[in-house]
Design brief:
Blueprint: E1 7-17, E2 22-34, H1 41-47, E3 55-60, E4 74-78, E5 91-93, E6 110-116, E7 120-124, E8 134-145, H2 148-153
Antiparallel strand pairs: 1-2, 1-8, 3-8, 4-7, 5-6, 6-7
């Protein structure tokens, strides 16, 4: 089966920055809905017409991937607003930031604790790969028709390209 809109593709990949540093490796196939919200547009466009076994090497500039870094999404918040167990790498949904946090912080962003000081916590609402051009070497492992439920949701539920809240110490992107 060829990859078309509204199908599910199982992919493996290696994601690197432009200096060749490995950012993520997906060894086991993960399913994504093509034509939904699971993949970046440039990846979907490149996949069109390919079949299982195909290998693609893509270069994505920040505007095609995770966007440019936006310093207006960095917030310095009082440490006392956060629980004592707050750690670097923890994430908070903008709609669930503690009372007293900056009213300028967009509610639809996901914030990562990037630094902790005695009196302040630094929150970053940028995607961890914002501002970075990436190289993606991927392999199509399988292709199948999407279910009505997957099409209705617009996703297979994977969410790789949308940062999900993470437990402390979990720095994987998928």
């Amino acid at each position: 089966m060829e990859i078309t809109q509204q199908c599910v593709v199982a992919l493996t990949w290696t994601l690197k920055d432009t200096l060749g540093e490995e950012l993520d490796v997906l060894d086991e196939p993960v399913e994504f809905l093509v034509g939904g919200n699971d993949l970046l547009r440039k990846i979907e466009d490149a996949l069109q017409g390919h079949i299982p076994g195909a290998r693609l090497d893509l270069h994505l500039e920040p505007e095609e991937a995770f966007g440019d870094f936006n310093d207006k999404l960095i917030f310095l918040e009082p440490r006392k607003l956060f629980p004592p167990e707050v750690e670097e790498g923890m994430t908070f949904e903008g709609s669930a930031l503690p009372a007293g946090a900056s009213p300028d912080a967009p509610k639809d962003a996901l914030y990562t604790v990037t630094e902790i000081y005695p009196d302040h916590v630094v929150l970053d609402g940028n995607h961890p790969l914002a501002g970075i051009a990436i190289r993606l070497s991927l392999k199509v492992q399988a292709v199948r028709e999407a279910t009505e439920e997957e099409i209705g949701r617009g996703s297979c539920g994977t969410g790789f390209f949308k940062v999900q809240p993470q437990a402390p110490g979990n720095d994987l992107l998928h």
